[in-house]
Amino acid sequence: MDSQHFYSHGKLLITGEYLVLDTAKALAIPCKFGQHLEVKPSKRDFSTWVSYDFQNQIWLHLEFDLLDVITQKLQGKNDVEHRLFQILRETSRLNPDVFTQNYEFKTQIEFPKNWGLGTSSTLIANLAKWADVNPYKLLAKTFGGSGYDIACADSDSALVYAIENGTPRVETAEIPNFIKPFIYFVHLEQKQNSREAIANYRKAKPNSLGEFVSKINSITDEFQEVNTLEKAHKLIANHEECLSEILQIEPVQSRLFPDFEGSIKSLGAWGGDFVMAICEADPTSYFNNKAYKTILKFEDMSL
Asked: How many Å is the maximal CA-CA distance in the chain?
């Protein structure tokens, strides 16, 4: 059998972080950066897994017997190996016919791992394609989360994602052309653990959750039709205020960028990864002066 190649897009969650876990509508975009997976039968009596980073440097190289992994005889010597072997075991449970022999696996990401664009979700999506299993089920059995990142993996446009009665619902969306030139993505150089962030959110959820979900749904809808900077700033401020009240965390703009002329919104897990800045003038020099060096225009990040 020849080698097989799979590819999935990274993601950014524009609205609905955390509350997407509780039926809120979330606006998300697939990114120009993603992850590749190549699989081919092994000619040896063991499997190999080699992962390359965006600079084409190997960051993970393993040799193992798949049967030992599937039967849990092999657990992994560290957190990375343990997590990978867990993913392979769950893949096998979802499709017992997939691991009929040993294989050579090769992955490569197109972005720095600390960017938070979906190193894990793109791997799950790629493996699910290869093994012909439901990616949402594979995600649920491994990393957990809402699944919006799985929806982005194969999307070629912005989307609105929601969970209805436990089932993912995905609709095509559009970021208005008007606002795109004013959107920038800034990396805060602090990788966040999504699983820990979700656990903290679960502890902080208020009794009036339905009211917050309704507010976020309205913001998600309105952002898709925004046609003035004033409106965009208002929507961002309202969204940050909602999540700040729930999480009891100060919004990133008042905490780090109180003098910024525009609006700044956390994306995904609060406290790290990327933030979205909306402003009239190019903010590169502003963020550079505060020691933030990774600033991408909307067109450079989004498909």
From this structure: 63
Buried b (16+ CB within 10 A) or exposed e, 35-72: bbbbbeebeeeebebbbbbeeeeeeeebebebeebbee
- Give all domains of the chain, ordered by start, each with its CATH number: 4-171 (3.30.230.10), 175-301 (3.30.70.890)
Q: Please give the helix or strand (H or E) that residue 120 lies within, else none.
A: helix 119-131
Instruction: Give residues with Cβ within 8 angstroms of 118, minimum separation 6.
Output: 8, 9, 10, 11, 31, 34, 35, 149, 152, 153
User: pLDDT per residue over 110-155, tens digit each?
Assistant: 999 999 999 999 999 999 999 999 999 999 999 999 999 999 999 9
Asked whether 91 and 131 are in contact (CB, 8 A), the reply is yes
Instruction: For 114, list phi and psi in degrees, rounded to 5.
Output: -80, 0
Counting as low any pLDDT under 50, the low residues of the chain are none
Do 184 and 292 touch, CB atoms closer than 8 A?
no
In the DSSP assignment, the letter for residue 143 is: T
For residue 264, count other CB atoms closer than 10 A to its CB: 25
